[in-house]
Each structure stands twice: as structure tokens, then as C-alpha cells.
């Protein structure tokens, strides 16, 4: 159980990439008054948490309604993870999710979705759908722990960027991208193995 919790925690930490999203949060909140920034951070983290929780609980029902198998979701999710990881290792203009050019206080987009609860995170929590109560509780616990990490990181985002500097932040993001690449490949191979067994 502890191993499952740790594995889920690490995977969710990688796919939501809080440290890699620090520059995005700093930029998005730069035009928000300082007294409101913490409220916006808490709100966006809460929205992302609820969205991921809903996908975790109703993942299998969604798959059934769309007539998708868990194997196809695993392989498709691994491809998305791999693409996100490539953009982390080899940054592109506009960041991981592009720049919508909007001004003012951010609401849901781009911070809650897709910065935190992006396609890779949604695909990952869909795979956590489980029949046993114990596994469900472990996954919810891991998601809650990761949400607390988001809060801690994003509430101190400006300080982190100033203390560590842009080079260290970039290096850390690329390291996270490298680890996520390996996780994506592992997920892809597991999907292919399951597919071959089903033939």
C-alpha cells in the first residue's frame, strides 16, 4: 500500500509538474493585486483538484460511455505524456501549453486547466479507477498530498523564482521532463503488453 501511494504521488507530481509551472504562475499572476494572489492560487489549485478527483471517480464510466478500453487510454496517455515531456526537455515559445495572450485575473484557464490538470494528468487519473476501496483511498490520499505540494510551491512561486534563478528552474524542469519521458515509455510498453495479451 505504501509503495502504491509513493508511486502514485511521484507520477502525479511529474505529470502536474508544479516546479515547471512556477514561471507560468508568476507570469499569470503578475497583473493580479498582491493581496489577491494567494486567493487565486488556492482557487485554481482547488479547481484542478476537483477536476482530477471527478476524473478519478468517473473514469471507468466515461471510458464505457465512449467505448474506449483501458489499454487504448494507457497507450494514448503515454503518447501525451511523452509529448509533454519533450516540450519540458526542449522548451518551445509560449511554454508547455502556449500563450493565449489574455490579460487580467486568470480563472480556470490556463492555471487550473491545462497547467495543473492537463491532458496528461487527466489521462493518468483515469487509469487510477479501481474497484477496491483501499486502492481508491490510496489514490485520493496521493492526489491530496500532491495538491498540498501545488499549494506550497505556487504560494511561494515568486520567492522560488528569485532564490533559485531562471537557470536552476530551467534545469529542474528539464530533469523532470527526462524522468517523465521514462514514465511515458514505461506506460506505453505496459499498454502494448496488455494489448498483446488480449489478442
SSE ordering: HHHHHHHH
Poorly predicted runs are: none
Number of helices: 8
The total strand number stands at 0
Overall spatial form: globular
Q: From the helix content, strand content and strand pairing, which structural class follows? A: mainly alpha
First and last CA, distance = 31 Å
Q: Major β-sheet, in short?
A: none
Query: How much helix, percentage-wise, in residues?
Result: over 70%
The mean pLDDT is: 83
- Count the domains: 1
Strand content: under 5%
Q: Over the alpha carbons, how many angstroms does the gyration radius reach?
A: 17 Å
Family: Belongs to the UPF0056 (MarC) family.
Transmembrane segments: 40-59, 110-129, 136-155, 175-196
InterPro entries: Multi_antbiot-R_MarC
Subcellular location: Cell membrane
What can you see in these coordinates?
The protein has one domain (2-198). It has 199 residues and is mainly alpha-helical. The mean pLDDT is 83. The longest helix is centred in the last third of the chain and has 42 residues, at 157-198. It is built from 8 helices and no strands. Helix 1 packs antiparallel against helix 6 (119-126) and helix 3 (34-65) packs antiparallel against helix 7 (133-155). The protein is globular and about 55 Å long.
Amino acid at each position: 500500500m505504501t509503495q502504491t501511494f509513493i508511486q502514485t504521488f511521484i507520477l502525479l507530481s511529474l505529470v502536474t509538474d508544479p516546479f515547471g509551472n512556477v514561471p507560468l504562475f508568476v507570469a499569470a499572476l503578475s497583473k493580479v493585486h498582491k493581496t489577491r494572489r494567494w486567493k487565486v492560487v488556492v482557487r485554481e489549485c482547488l479547481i484542478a483538484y476537483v477536476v482530477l478527483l471527478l476524473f478519478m471517480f468517473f473514469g471507468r464510466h466515461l471510458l464505457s460511455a465512449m467505448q474506449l478500453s483501458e489499454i487504448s487510454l494507457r497507450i494514448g496517455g503515454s503518447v501525451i505524456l511523452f509529448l509533454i515531456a519533450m516540450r519540458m526537455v526542449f522548451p518551445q515559445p509560449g511554454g508547455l501549453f502556449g500563450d493565449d495572450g489574455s490579460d487580467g485575473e486568470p480563472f480556470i484557464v490556463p492555471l487550473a486547466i491545462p497547467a495543473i490538470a492537463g491532458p496528461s494528468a487527466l489521462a493518468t487519473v483515469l487509469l487510477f479507477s479501481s474497484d477496491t476501496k483501499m486502492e481508491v483511498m490510496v489514490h485520493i490520499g496521493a492526489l491530496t498530498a500532491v495538491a498540498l505540494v501545488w499549494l506550497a510551491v505556487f504560494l511561494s512561486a515568486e520567492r522560488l523564482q528569485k532564490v533559485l534563478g531562471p537557470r536552476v528552474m530551467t534545469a529542474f524542469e528539464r530533469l523532470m521532463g527526462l524522468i517523465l519521458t521514462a514514465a511515458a515509455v514505461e506506460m506505453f510498453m505496459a499498454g502494448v503488453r496488455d494489448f498483446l495479451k488480449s489478442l
